[in-house]
Fold each of these.
Amino acid sequence: MEVFNTANKVIITCNRRLSPYLTQEVTDLGFQIVRSFNTGVEVKASVNECMRLNLNLRSASQVLYELKSFRAADADELYKNLVRIAWEEIIPLDGYFSVTSNVHNETITTPLFANVKVKDAIVDRIKDKKGIRPNSGPELNRCVIHLHWMEERAEIFIDTSGETLAKHGYRKHPGKAPMLEALAASTIMATAWDGKTPFVNPMCGSGTLAIEAALMAQNRMPGLLRMNYSFMHFIGYNEEVFFEERRRLKDITEKTNIPSIIASDISREAIEIAKLNARNAGVEHLITFEVCDFEETTIPEAPGVIMFNPEYGERLGTHARLEITYKRMGDFMKQKCRGYRGYIFTGNPELAKKIGLRASRRFEFFNGKLDCRLLQYELYEGTKEDKKE
């Protein structure tokens, strides 16, 4: 099974509501979208082409290459179909593999049972053909096989990513309630920031938004921060294909003409964490960090983008304090950020009403399971009437 050079169905997954941004990224890479859905897109690609997808995508979670689809009413039928696949041509005999799954079948009470059936089919097939049992376990840092089983329809994939792509690898110090890197990158994409004008991130926390902005301004892909993917551990992997793509990504990285990127937080500890994360990402020198109340954040000359990700007030006793904070954010943007586009990311619509500005657009996102909005505000230089003239 020459999967590295054979184009087949590929599902690229993402968190809910990130699909529009993933679609744009995949299209920009030159792939034709077969279909888009709420948690991903489908394309046709070889595993070699999946390497490019893994290295380039900011908003994705996994890149799944289909090996086979078939009918399976129950676990026994699943096993019979899987044991027919030439696993000895896919997984090294001295290799290690793990199994993940997304299962909705009335005969299966726990996905772990389905995972065991997949593992047994793979091990039994290789032992029958080669007389050797490969090792298996929960770690996702080598060969990963994914089962998608809905009712009586089963699909088995090579998960070419392994560990999720949604974490970009630089955040060793997450801080309090950090925003997932794929979500942060997608919210910046939603702003249509051009990467050439200033990007200001008050209340920056662990720095994820500012770091993603710096990476985007450099046209620096997240794959340059990672050296291990599942695709590296399957039979047929050619490391030269991987390193050629890495070289290409280094060549297109912008070293000069980076705009002003400012991250501020009232917590010195938060700024120290943000600096460490920025250092891990290789962009610390591109970001100006400030320890201050957000109202004292340096605002470079307009135009630019200013983006807040404040607390949402899930904890008891914080709501009254946050009402004042949200009103202050609105006043600050209105008075100090004229000529900018302002954005506030929040999961609390009641607090959003306290901002005191009319949102020109609302982008829907999820932060974990929390229904959120990215609110856009046009912060005109003069009055709105002046702008029309």
Note: The first strand starts at residue 8 and ends at 13.
Amino acid sequence: MTTTTLTLQPRPEIDPSVDHVIQAIVSGASTDATCTTDLAVGPWDFDTRPGYGPGSSMGDVIPTGAPRQGELPRDYREASDDELDARIRAAKATLGDRVVVLGHFYQREEVVRHADYVGDSFQLANAAKAHPEAEAIVFCGVHFMAETADLLSRPEQSVILPNLAAGCSMADMASIDQVEECWEQLADVLGDLDTPDADGLLPVIPVTYMNSSAAIKGFVGRHGGIVCTSSNARTVLEWAFARGRRVLFFPDQHLGRNTAKAMGVPLDRMPMWNPRQPLGGSTAEQLKDSRVILWHGFCSVHRRFSVAQIDKARAEHPGVRVIVHPECPMDVVDAADEAGSTDVIRKAIAAADEPTTFAVGTEINLVQRLAAQFPQHEIFCLDPVVCPCSTMYRIHPGYLAWVLESLVAGEVVNRITVPADVAEPATVALERMLAAKPNGAVK
């Protein structure tokens, strides 16, 4: 029997920095494409303007009154990358265990390298809860994540968001007023929503994705509902179906649809709720027959992925393994080989024993970092246009250095605090979520 030894050709070192990629595109050193050259400048250039900033959500309409960031001191705006890196490290060393820095997978590399914990929203929610000794939690993510950390941390702990303009367009697609109005209209059709039937089941169990405001989480907690993440969405829906006839799922329609479909819920029993239309655009009969009522919301990052991109990847890379996030549209999830949360994607790549080509449908910062971390594989983003999450990209090392050095000086800036009347029911919903352990990928 003859054996053949496979000799791998060494790959050039991959730069994990998306910022470096964008700078190369803008300077003409790269022929790749980006959705906007505005990504090459500091996010402070956009702090005083309404909007989510350059990137995937730049076309989304931001609500009136959305938080804005005050002017970042010039010292941080003009500092070099190396200087900011050194100042962040020095501030962290001075603060020691007094501070814990959390970094979401979608953060830029220049920020993630300073995080004590890196993960998805589910993992970081647990990390925030696990450090009662820290005086401050610096959350390098977006606004709803910092709110969640405040809900789960001790009252005397300060939760800090380095840039207040780092919101989330998906979270903003379901306001508390819209959800309250939806609930009232559903009660007109389905009866008292807080009274169980003869079988002990409520007419509707509200389920909100982690990507929602604390006010929405509070609403869910008051009405017997629960929060979910992309890691545990299936487990949470099973929890909800055991307690109610149907689920109201918001704000991301795609995660709700993809998860419920994988559980066997027919598409014709998943009507869409458009908050701008009476009864959400459905009939009373459709709502009565529903199993999952989907909110008309979406992630602008994951809506960029398409079946055409998957077809192109398969044509150009025979044997490619396509793995996408469940926030992608249903046809994209169906066309992929696998779908799962950011952590599921990361673990799938880490577990691959043989050199593999991966086409990944999720935010570019994570994809670029995975490509650098696992050079034995060929890993690329399904979307050839470099277009990071607009709001995650608002967290820049300049802001991180500023909030950390402010802590060294004894000043807490950009503290995120959830009012007590919202915090109590929201915490109930979050504790239910934390008890619902993830059970694997969506597909």
Note: The CA atoms of residues 103 and 140 lie 5 Å apart.
